[in-house]
Specification:
Number of helices: 9
CATH topology of the largest domain: Aldehyde Oxidoreductase, domain 3
Number of domains: 2
Structural class: alpha+beta
Distance between the termini: 54 Å
Order of helices and strands: HEEHEHEEHEHHEEEHEHEHEE
Oligomer: single chain
Shape: globular
CATH superfamily of the largest domain: Aldehyde oxidase/xanthine dehydrogenase, a/b hammerhead
Amino acid sequence: MEEPRRWIGRSAPRREAPRLAAGEGRYTEDIAIAGAGHVAFLRSPHAHAKITAIDTTAAKVAPGVIAVVTGDDLAAVCKPWQTRLALFPGHQSPPQHPLARGETCWQGEAVVAVVAQTRAQAEDALELIAIAWEELPAVPSIEAAAAGAPTAHSAMASNLGLEHAFAAGDVDAAFGAAAVVVEHDFTFGRQTGVTLEPRSIVAEFDRRLGQLIVTHSHQVPYQMREVFAAQLGLPLERVRVVTPDVGGAFGMKLSAYPDELAVAALAVLLGRPVRYVADRLESFVSDIHAREAKVRGRLACDAAGKLVAMEVAVRCGFGAYVN
């Protein structure tokens, strides 16, 4: 009999590696769709501000512009949503919109979308939009949020998004009787993945069939299929999400981004295909981050060096949208 194959410690060649290494990958931006409009977003320059007025008159008549759309316009086709964690019923988040409505809660939040024949034309039109802002207090750190700073979002009663604790055994007694106790404070900064392929999405809506097709550089297409169907009020069987080759993700293509929901909503609202590709500078303010955290850890050992107790307290910054 042949010795059974052993996979541990052996490299397994990736079937698609030769094609990708030869530059023959097919990514979302490579998908050619006739008549697709290009989307660019005007983003908030403020960490927290009230939107008192938006003037899009000049942008609407700029060269190549197909549509200029605000959060109020998209409300007709896209419902607001809230993050829910089934395992933590105490978790809360404010209502979220594909484009900000009335208030922006983080620097870089999308406020107005311009759809044009080219990305350059859409970006030029953004400069013609005038927004009147009223700056609101911002929450600059975890410590400030915990110390009773004004809320990062007006729909929240406090800055606490989630509180959870659990314990097993008599921890205090174990620490009291320990031969050695070691404790340390750790600080973890915010970070994000910088992928070779940025966030990219193409959305097409067929009004005759009521069918939405989304080509998406994403890690969880089935999740996004449910999200698009629920928020746009479409039957699940009428929504299709396709992920071609994905040029890196590292966890930052796991979320339901408001601006990507805006692209799908734009396709439904306008009845024509639209595409959006985040550029590198835009990614710095729009891509999600790993959460910053302050951690205090304590370990208790007996005289033989055996671990008898552990205590960890973690305080994380979820961000204004608690997602």
